[in-house]
Known about the structure:
alpha+beta, CBS-domain, two-stranded antiparallel sheet
Amino acid sequence: MLKVSEILRVKGDTLYTATPDMPIQKALETMSTLDIGSLVVMEHGELAGMLTFREILRHLHTNGGNTGNFTVRHIMDDHPVSVSPNTSADEVQRLMLEKHARYIPVMDGPTLMGVISFYDMAKAIVAAQEFENKMLKAYIRDWPSDSDPSAA
């Protein structure tokens, strides 16, 4: 069974963070420049929340397209759903669908290990299915037939 730790190992350990007091405009610029969809919000070395384009778009919509002088703290999800490195990929899929979460922090106790995105999950599932398909084809190809004398 595929685990979150395996997905993180393949993905790498690059994390992009923000602070709660970062201006929304600066967070938006960072996300746009780095071509990322989320920032992990850290305060005093601990997870304080998540900021995604969803929160930014919601804020822009309600404020006439202006970020104003608001900070990340004003719009971040301060209670994001998180998983552990031992969580199964099936459970992450379920949580993402149930909570409409495109990004989920991976926590090992109080330590942030990474972020799993919807894209990371899709990529891991496709890779696992391709591997399984390859193994099944190899198994079928090596299937002994009744006319094969070595099968007896």
